[in-house]
């Protein structure tokens, strides 16, 4: 079963807090009414021979307004952050079951699908092939790749070995190579992998994808989502 793993509670994702947390927060805050009452009491009990200076009074009012404004901004940013995180979680959920293209020197042979991937060879590359190796480092098959000059070049392996047998399902190492200007060169490989699950960090960190046959990779490494 695939699922989203998220360390943040469902209440925090929805921007909610418990009643005890709300009560404790409100008890520690100095509201506008309480501040005005405090200022009025201060004026009533001031020394008539040394009354409060108007500048000091206005300074306290300005300081309270500034602090109150900053607190309001912090509350607003906190609400926005909560909404963004919830939206990020929903977007991450939509990736489950979809295919993504990621840079990887490993790929997976899957039932009814085979192995799908792409390589990054230039338009001048010739005699391109993808060599597929098993866990023991033995060459299983070499898949030729047609260079149509269209950027990333697709390859597909149906799972048949060089001896004509069906290779076992699972992970394999892939190496792409070809010739250019008379020299043999290697090329970067990309795997088309299914998203089994996603993980969203509670501190706003990057979404991690659990890819079949590849493992955990950050979403930023995905070249394309299909």
Any descriptors?
Immunoglobulin-like, 34% strand, alpha+beta, 4 helices, 2 domains, 226 residues, eight-stranded mixed sheet
Record the SSE blueprint:
Layout: E1 4-6, H1 10-13, H2 19-28, H3 32-44, H4 54-93, E2 99-103, E3 106-109, E4 115-119, E5 126-133, E6 139-145, E7 153-157, E8 170-180, E9 183-187, E10 189-200, E11 208-211, E12 215-218, E13 222-225
What does this structure look like?
- This protein has 226 residues and is α+β, with helices and mostly antiparallel strands.
- The protein has two domains: 10-44 and 51-93; 100-192, Immunoglobulin-like (Sandwich), CATH 2.60.40.4070.
- The chain contains four helices and 13 strands.
- The longest helix is centred in the N-terminal third of the chain and has 40 residues, at 54-93.
- The chain is elongated.
Model regions low in confidence, pLDDT < 50 over at least 5 residues: 1-23
| Proportion of residues in extended strands | 25-35%
What is the rounded distance between the termini? 21 Å
Helix content: 25-40%
CATH-defined architecture of the largest domain:
Sandwich
Secondary-structure element order, as H and E? EHHHHEEEEEEEEEEEE
Tertiary shape? elongated
Structural class: alpha+beta
For this structure, the quaternary state is single chain
Count all strands and give the number: 13
Helix segment count? 4
Largest sheet: 8 strands, mixed
Average pLDDT taken over every residue:
75
CATH topology of the largest domain: Immunoglobulin-like
Radius of gyration: 31 Å
Question: What is the class of the largest domain in the CATH system?
Answer: Mainly Beta
- How many domains? The number is 2
């Amino acid at each position: 079963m695939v699922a989203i793993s998220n360390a943040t509670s469902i209440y925090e994702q929805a921007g909610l807090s418990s009643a005890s947390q709300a009560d404790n927060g409100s008890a520690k805050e100095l509201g506008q009414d309480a501040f005005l009452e405090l200022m009025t009491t201060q004026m009533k009990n001031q020394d008539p021979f040394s009354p409060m200076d108007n500048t000091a009074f206005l300074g306290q009012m300005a300081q309270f307004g500034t602090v109150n404004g900053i607190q309001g901004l912090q509350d607003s940013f906190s609400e926005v952050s909560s909404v963004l995180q919830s939206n990020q979680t929903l977007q991450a959920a939509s990736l489950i079951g979809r295919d993504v293209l990621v840079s990887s020197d490993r790929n997976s042979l899957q039932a009814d699908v085979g192995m799908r991937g792409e390589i990054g060879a230039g338009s001048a590359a010739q005699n391109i092939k993808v060599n597929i190796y098993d866990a023991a480092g033995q060459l299983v098959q070499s898949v030729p790749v047609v260079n149509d000059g269209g950027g990333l070049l697709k390859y597909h392996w149906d799972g048949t070995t060089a001896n004509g047998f069906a290779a076992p399902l699972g992970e394999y190492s892939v190496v792409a190579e070809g010739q250019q200007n008379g020299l043999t060169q290697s090329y970067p490989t990309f795997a088309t992998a299914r998203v089994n699950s996603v993980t969203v960090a509670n501190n706003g960190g990057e979404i991690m994808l659990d890819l079949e046959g590849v493992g955990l990779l950050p979403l930023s490494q995905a070249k394309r989502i299909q």
